[in-house]
Amino acid sequence: MKARADAISGKILAELLERFVSLLSESQADCCFSTGDSEAVAAAVRSESLSPAQQLGVEMTVRYGKSLNLLQEDAADGLSFVLLSCQQFLKQQQRPLVSSLHILSWCHSAVLPKNSSCLQECSPGYDWFAASVFLLMSGDEKTTLTFLQQFSHLLVSAFLWPPRLHRSIHLPLSTVESGIYPVYFCTAHNIEMLLKAELPFVSSAFHRSGFTPAQICLHWITQCFWNYLDWPEICHYLALCIFLGADYQIYLCISVFRHLQQDILQHTE
């Protein structure tokens, strides 16, 4: 990746990720999360439909995929099926929850019903990670679903795929009720600690602005860096974290801040 960024891309990268995740998912030592009932998922999908926010996300993804020459005109149906399948698959591992806490971290508040809460919904909004995998697999819905189901067993899925642990039975009830998930109290916390040590001026600039680096990084990570990195770089981000571990999510965010350091300091002035 450092010598020739285009050497690992497209179908080569997709096949490499597919094989790697498949091998890990067959190893009990590498699997942290339980599996679900795929037959029940297939039956439930037929009676479900996407929310307005998800439909907007599908349109955006297909438009983006076509501009990259990765998707065909009819890709919207395949992506919708993938998102509904993921929603039902993850729903099997969610606990019922009644909470008055309103958290809109992954939702588009403009299209949310009045008095709704992400904690009460089965889906926390548009699934940017699943959409990214769909593009990575060139719109092949069967390959995408197989990959996501195998990937969901792995620990790294808790950090790359935010909806993975939404209301999850794999988290303590107190954590679920708080709406604060590992991508925040692990990744974002470590980013802030590293930023103080590696880039103290950037850390100070954030402190003076009234924003925290965690806010920005959560936005980047939740959307898989869409609209911030080019598509090849997004693919490399996913590959690095899957191949080398979720801690590379932290290192990449620090690298982006280092790259933007001069701009950040100029804007602060």
From TrEMBL:
Coiled coil: none
Domain of life per record: Eukaryota
Matching SUPFAM superfamilies: Ypt/Rab-GAP domain of gyp1p
BROMI C-terminal Rab TBC-like domain mapped to chain residues: 1-269
Protein's UniProt name: BROMI protein
This protein's encoding gene: Tbc1d32
